[in-house]
Amino acid sequence: MTIPFLTFLLERAPYLLFVLPVTAGAYFMLAQRNVLLSFVGLYLIQTGVIFFYVLLSVRRDAVIPIRLEGSSGPYINPLPHALMLTAIVVGVALLGVALSMMRRIQIEDGSLQENVRRREPKKSTRGRT
To answer: What is the DSSP letter of 115?
Structure first.
């Protein structure tokens, strides 16, 4: 009974590797009260989705889509890879903006914990005379 189930899992091992960062990311986003850990969870989910798209575009015995002499057979679609490269660039930009915003929150409130932070915003004298 367990042997067919194990072979089923082993045949789909790369897809199961997609599940690990997504579930860890969901845990970090939902169970943690730290803003930084919530953002790490978001980044893990993004990594899992990128990994899943790259896994979907992989074909066995396929060749690159450049016409060469003697190359025939199915071609690899380059579009998912290009889209995922764009998603990686956007994710890194989002990471930079979010880290700078979290740093500003930490400076003003003194903590990144949601239950420790003050509810009323501190009056800022930045930009005012």
So the answer is: T
C-alpha angle 41-45-51 in degrees, rounded to nearest 5: 140
Tokens at 103, concatenated: 């740093």
Domains, the chain, ordered by start: 11-58+76-109 (1.10.287)
The residue ranking higher by pLDDT, 110 or 71, is 110
Q: Which residues pair with 113 in a beta bridge?
A: 34
Q: What is the pLDDT of residues 19-33, one digit of tens each?
A: 899 999 999 999 988
pTM of the model: 0.74
Q: How many CB atoms lie within 10 A of CB 50?
A: 19
User: How many CB atoms neighbour CB 88 within 10 A?
Assistant: 13
